[in-house]
Amino acid sequence: MEKCNLSIIIPAYNEQSAISWAINDIYLFYFQNKQYINKCQLIIVNDGSTDFTNVVCYRTYKHIHQALVKHNIELTITHIHCKPNHGKGYAIREGLKDAKFETIMILDADLSVKPHINQFILDKINQNNPFIIVGQRNQTIKQPNHRLFLGWVFRNIVQSLFKFNLKDTQCPYKIIHKIPNLHNNLTINGFAYDIELLLYCRKLNFDIIPYQVEYKNRKNSKVTIRKICRMAYDIIYIGLRRF
User: Fold this and answer.
1) Are 103 and 176 spatial neighbours (Cβ–Cβ below 8 Å)?
2) Euclidean distance between the first and final Cα of the chain, in Å?
3) Residue 226 neighbours by CB distance under 10 Å
4) Could you report the per-residue pLDDT of 211-221, keeping only the tens digit for each?
5) Measuring CA to CA, how many Å separate 168 from each of 32, 102, 226?
6) CATH number corresponding to 4-241
7) Which residues pair with residue 131 across a beta bridge?
8) Which residues of the chain, if any, have pLDDT below 70?
9) Which of 20, 120, 127, 134 has the most CB atoms within 10 Å of its CB?
10) How would DSSP label each residue in 214-241?
């Protein structure tokens, strides 16, 4: 069975309380899934944080470095620092520029969806055709009613404009395989980057594969009314521009 080489991108903005757990969880994920993964690259993109995210990243990496060397673990950690804050889409583009491998996993810093790989995903990778796997959230913790309502409105707008064969476009779990020059073809800086990414993949006739994942909602969501308005603007812009 041929293993894959995997780059993992995590955008982070003021994540000092979560980023250490994320780095350690990625370390354990790789250690526990060496039957699927040969080499792994973790890319933390600190998107203009004003807290101690940078310091926590450095201390956590320093703490696990000895374990990586001792166990000869092929996990490298790259830390990109952007100033000022630009948005999730921008941070992911910066991570894509630095990705060493053809298979890329995108996660949120709070790991509301845990890193995950199995034989099904590895078989898709070994077929060597371009694809994107898009997580479809299975809610394990009920969200507040206002978030459920906003999510419902957002999904219906996206579906009416773009007709994706997906129930969930915004899930913080995606695997991209052999899709070239993404960082040069994406422009959206904010949370709506997912829509642009999926439209680009559809334009090139790459497989878009829905994949059920367990999702644990964070208590202090960073999705604000202002960001929702920005997402609406971005969606209208994408809809007018199309691909």
Assistant:
1) yes
2) 37
3) 8
4) 999 998 766 65
5) 28, 24, 21
6) 3.90.550.10
7) 177, 207
8) 1, 139-147, 149-152, 218-229, 240-243
9) 134
10) EE---SS----HHHHHHHHHHHHHHHHH
